[in-house]
Structure formats: C-alpha cells, structure tokens
Amino acid sequence: MSLRKRLRSIGMKAAAVAVAAATALSVAAPEAHAGNRDWLRPDATGHCDWDGAGYWVQRCDVWSPAMNRSIPVLIQPSGRGGDAGFYLLDGMRADDNQTGWTMFADAPATYADSNINLIMPIGGAGSFYTDWDAPATFSGPPVLYRWETFLTSELPAYLQANFGVNPNRNSIAGLSMGGTAAMNLAARHPQQFQQVLSFSGYLTTTMPGMQTLLRMALIDTGGFNINSMYTSILSPRRFENDPFWNMDGLRGKDIYVSASTGLWTPADMGLPLGPRVMGWALENMARNSTAAWEMKARASGLNPTVDYIPAGVHNWGIWTDQLHRTKGRVLDVMGAW
Predict the structure, then answer these.
(1) Statement to judge: residues 60 and 12 lie in one domain
(2) Domain extent for 14
C-alpha cells in the first residue's frame, strides 16, 4: 500500500506509527471509522491541518472579509455525516492560538462518538463575540472585531460548503463572556440556532455597575476600550446585546443556563488563594446575573432549564462538568446521536 493510501486509511493518525520516526509526529486520535472524518477540508491556506487535540479535529483557517484576516477554527466533523453544528465559545481571556475547550476541557473526546459537528472558534479575547463600532484597542496596532458577522454569516457559509453543516440547524454554548455571547447570538439569529446554553454567563450586562466592571475587565484583558464596542453607553446596540433585554428571539428554543455559588470545593483548594478569591467573586456575580435573567425570562413566558451548582469557582472544573452533563441534552435536541 502506498504512503498516500495508508495515511488516507487511518485518517486522524496523520502520522502513522510506520512513519512516526521519520516525521516526528505523534498519533493524535483513535483510528477513524467514518469517511466524513477521514479527510482534510480546504481552507484559506489550501487545506486544514490535523489539530493536536486529536479525535479527528481539524484546524481550519477561515477567511473573514469583515475582519480582513483568517480566523482559526477547530472543527470535529460529525461521526456519521450529520448536518447539525454545535458552536462552543470561549471566555474573556480567549487565547489567540488555541481554544480552552481543548486546552482545559475535553470537548473532542466527549463528542467523539456523536453525529454532530463541533465548531470551536479561536481568539476573540474580550470581544463578547459581537461587531464593534471601532478598533478595540486604545493605541497600538488596531484590533478589528466583527465576530457576529463572522459567526453568523461567513463561518456558516464555509461550514456548509466544506463540512455539510446546515446553517439553520445549530446549537451554541459558551462560558462566562461566551455564555453572554451565546445567548445574544441565539436571540438575534433565531433561524441559525435552535438551542443555547450559558455556563456562568453574565446575562445582565447593562444593569447598574456592570458597565464599569466590564470596562475594567476589558482593560485588564487586552487594553480594550469598551467605548469602541457600541460607541455610546446609551447606544441601542448596547441593550440589544444584553441578554436581559434580548429575549424575544429565544422563544421556542431549548434554553439551558447554569452558574455556581462560587463557594470553594475540595478541588478548588488546590488553586492559589488569589485565583480562588477572584473565582468566587466572578462566579457569584454570574450566579446573581443568571438568576435575575431567569426571573425576567419566566415572567416573559420563557421556560429555561436552570442548574444552580452548589459550589465551584469560575473555572474550567465546573465548565467541563457542564459540558459532560449537557451532552445528552444537546444530542437529543439536535437529533445527533
């Protein structure tokens, strides 16, 4: 058998044992059994690459005309050709080179046996995955954020053309900042998303004091200017991107929200004191924000599922647990077992 045929037959084992010594690559995933996962799709650089996360995850550079650059996206194709997509959004300190869903959680392994396409965009620290009115930074090289356009127009078109993902059959989940964004995107683009999940999201971003807290968080995250997001604190767009005021588009959707008290668990005691204290404060704020959102949602006729976790700081421990806990729900709603 030729080398080309051998590599094709083992799919995600892009560096086969037979050539590992020569290529200095390691086996990153179990052998593929579904043709939908066995081959690399085209992207802006020519073709995607196998990602080190394994489990058939491809790293694809998707060109964004809105941001005038390629956005890296990790994609795990569905196991048996299913056309549903599941978007996973990062938090405030999203890394420019990798997603927390593979660095700190095990999303690809969790969904390896599923018939859904995992879609994990990389980057967007402090962006709230929205379209900003101006470059995000105060000074230096401009950072242009047009994430809503990318996630709801440019990326879906790429996914449909190259992975067969139906642009109108998707679920979306996010943690912290990503939870806020997931709720907004699902409400603002109801045809694209049938399900939304928020893990420790901030769902009352225009409530008294929140803009000041967000302003400080964005400066600390990357020297970002919150005024560049929607220009004026009184801009209607600021309220259109607050989940508390942005609910109508969620009617008829499956909604799941979760947050913890921030109390320390035995596992959290292994963290340094500073992160433990900050993790308590951030998670407690998310809990209060989510509870306020829930009250208004129910008064508005929505019926979200809520999971108020008794303990756990604002960290990947509770978010990984939520990823596992909601897997059956996602696959049921999306018909992707």
Answers:
(1) no
(2) 1-31
CA 309 from chain center: how many Å? 21
Catalytic residue among 78, 127, 176, 289: 176
User: Within a domain: residue 36?
Assistant: no
| Whole-number pLDDT of residue 269 | 94
The DSSP annotation for 165-229 comes to --TTSEEEEEETHHHHHHHHHHHH-TTTEEEEEEES----TTSTTHHHHHHHHHHHHHSB-THHH
Active-site entry in 198, 200, 289, 314: 314
26 is catalytic: no
Specify the pairing of strand 193-199 against strand 170-175: parallel
Question: Which pLDDT score, from 0 to 100, does residue 235 have?
Answer: 87
Judge if 103 and 215 occupy the same domain: yes
Q: Does residue 251 contact residue 187 with C-beta atoms inside 8 Å?
A: no
**Residue numbers in the chain where pLDDT is lower than 50:** 1-34
CATH of the domain at 45: 3.40.50.1820
47 and 93 fall within a common domain: yes
Q: How many Å separate Cα 242 from the centre of its chain?
A: 18
Residue 234's pLDDT is 81
Q: Which two tokens stand for residue 280?
A: 């308590």
Residue 176 is among the residues annotated as catalytic for this protein: yes
**In this predicted structure, what is the pLDDT of residue 6?**
38
Chain CA centroid to CA 14, Å: 26
Q: Are residues 80 and 17 in the same domain?
A: no
User: Hey, what amino acid is at 314?
Assistant: H
Q: Which residue among 148, 154, 283, 294 is the active-site one? A: 283
- The yes-or-no answer on residue 314 being catalytic is yes
Contact 330, 85 (CB under 8 A): no
Residue 50 inside a domain? The answer is yes
- Give pLDDT, residue 232: 80
Q: How many domains does the chain have?
A: 2
Residue 277, pLDDT score: 96
Q: Note whether 176 and 226 are same-domain residues.
A: yes
Tokens of 247: 């609910």
49 and 12 in a common domain: no
